[in-house]
Amino acid sequence: MTPLSKRETQIMEAIYKLGSGSVADVIDAMSNPAGYSAVRAQLRILEEKGHLKHGEKDGKYVYFPVQPKQEAARGMMRRVVDSFFGGSRSAAVLSLLGDSREQLTESEIAELEQLIEQAKQEQKR
Fold this sequence. Notes:
Elements: H1 6-18, H2 23-29, H3 36-48, E1 52-57, E2 60-65, H4 69-85, H5 89-97, H6 106-124
Antiparallel strand pairs: 1-2
Helix pairs in contact: 1-2, 2-3
């Protein structure tokens, strides 16, 4: 799937929050919405790009995501890792961890340790 613009990302966030929705629903769910015709046009573009599909309900188009949010997020992360970190997942993680302005919580550290341990176990197989 093609990368999303800032406005397209906002619209997709609204759709994921709603599960599905009409143009008016999406506008209501956005924190900084564009006008009705602009959102309608963006929904059509997102459908053309393969991110959304639509159905009809009560005479209105209702849009819904093609992929579950988690699956779409993994795809976007793969593109970021490939584009900015040469495909190195560890470099991407180190970049996130190296931000001294944000301290990791104990539960985040425990989750990372568990994921690392799982990766080690999978490599042994």
